[in-house]
Specification:
The complex is a heterodimer of chains A (139) and B (229).
Chain A: H1 22-29, H2 44-51, H3 57-64, H4 69-86, E1 89-90, E2 94-95, H5 100-110, H6 120-138
Antiparallel strand pairs in A: 1-2
Chain B: E1 2-6, E2 14-23, E3 28-38, E4 45-58, E5 95-96, E6 131-134, E7 137-139, E8 141-145, E9 148-149, E10 154-164, E11 169-180, E12 183-192, H1 197-209
Antiparallel strand pairs in B: 1-2, 2-3, 3-8, 3-9, 4-5, 4-6, 4-10, 6-7, 10-11, 11-12
Classes of the chains: A mainly alpha (139), B mainly beta (229).
Chain lengths: 139, 229
């Protein structure tokens, strides 16, 4: 039995590294695997990262700026899923807070309107904005 | 090639637009949006949303088999009914496009209905939205999709419908394509006012599998004990 497999998904409070969770790292490493043929933008890891909420954002910075466009799209979807949950989205039921989607859109645009197909400078600026926002969520 | 077309004035209740771009790369498929804008004559509705049904056909003509977290998709597929091509006949293998890993069938009458709406699973809020119509206040509805595959051949057939809060259909588009040897071929589409019998059968099957209100398998409300004097 592996201790790592059952390990906590929270950051180690003894370090300042916001990306030291092995479970989240493993999900990011699998972000392109086993895509659904009906939804090529989605993989099991994308959905699982989304379920963990905004704490996954620091782990996504490299994949949001990956060379491969499909990897960037998977990372975008993971970021979106994490934020959707944050604002009250429940899969199968939709937005459970009346202003949830409006708040999602406002924040998405404020943080650079990230687009996996967009130009690299725009992506980099958006990633920086998300990392800044994420750091405020942890404190 | 791509699928880019508007229904223009051909639908009674509004304009359906399909804007799918073919991708031929490591992952080949079609990526883009489908949009419906109700016109002034359309029935008012507080919510206008896309419901999509899909069939995935393998190169040998058999339906794609879903396993693992997606295995319940096998349960919601339609069964063939009637003679193919005849009015009211139902084609086999069609299912409501949803994520079965995210939902479970209802077990009691107080459980919320399991949604058929595409965006209740994949809102893609930066590129799609729900709509409404209240007199002159009109907002279109849309969905974003990217069916595609790498290292295999597959045919996708879709029927995407704009539906109001009461289940009224405002318009549909049937569309599809094949990926063969990483190339996108056989793209097609057509616009319709009403959903097909197959679409309706797929929605009925979904509602039955999830025991949704109004379906034959819906849980009955608990009986209220009789008052005793």
């Amino acid at each position: 039995m592996s201790n790592h497999a059952a390990g906590p998904t929270t950051n180690d409070p003894t370090t300042n590294d916001p990306t030291n969770d092995p479970t989240i790292k493993a999900l990011v490493a699998r972000i392109d695997q086993d895509a659904d043929p009906n939804h090529a933008d989605l993989t099991p890891a994308v959905e699982q990262l989304g379920e963990l909420g905004p704490k996954v954002i620091p782990y996504l910075s490299d994949t949001l700026n990956a060379k491969d466009e499909l990897t960037r799209l998977h990372a975008q979807r993971a970021l979106e899923r994490a934020l959707e949950r944050h604002f009250g989205f429940v899969p199968g039921q939709g937005w459970t807070k009346p202003d949830g989607e409006a708040r999602f859109r406002t924040l998405w645009i404020k943080n650079g309107n990230y687009d996996a197909d967009g130009a690299e400078p725009a992506r980099e600026a958006s990633i920086k904005a998300w990392l800044t926002w994420s750091s405020t969520q942890r404190s | 090639m791509s699928i880019k077309e508007s229904s223009k004035d051909s639908l009674k209740a509004g304009e359906m637009e399909i804007d799918m771009t073919s991708i031929e790369a490591a992952k080949s498929g079609e990526k883009g949006t489908i949009k419906f804008t109700p016109n002034a004559k359309a029935k008012d509705t507080t919510k206008l949303r896309m419901v999509q049904v899909v069939r995935d056909v393998q190169e040998d003509g058999t339906d794609y088999k879903w396993t693992g977290s997606q295995a319940r998709l096998e349960d919601v597929k339609t069964q063939e009914k009637g003679k193919a091509g005849e009015a009211g006949s139902v084609d086999k293998g069609w299912m409501v496009d949803h994520n079965p890993a995210a939902v479970t069938p209802r077990s009691k009458a107080s459980d919320p209905a399991v949604s058929t709406a595409y965006r209740d699973y994949w809102p893609n809020s930066s590129v799609s939205q729900d709509g409404h119509k209240n007199g002159k206040d009109i907002q279109h509805c849309s969905l974003w999709d990217f069916p595609g595959i790498s290292g295999g051949n597959l045919t996708w057939r879709f029927e995407t419908a704009a539906q109001g809060a009461d289940g009224t259909t405002y318009g549909t588009v049937k569309w599809g394509f094949t990926v063969k040897d990483s190339k996108v071929i056989n793209e097609s589409h057509s616009f319709h006012d009403n959903p097909s019998a197959t679409f309706n059968a797929a929605v009925d099957k979904f509602n039955d599998v999830y025991h949704n209100p109004g379906s034959p398998s819906a849980p009955k409300p608990a009986a209220t004990p009789e008052k005793k004097d």
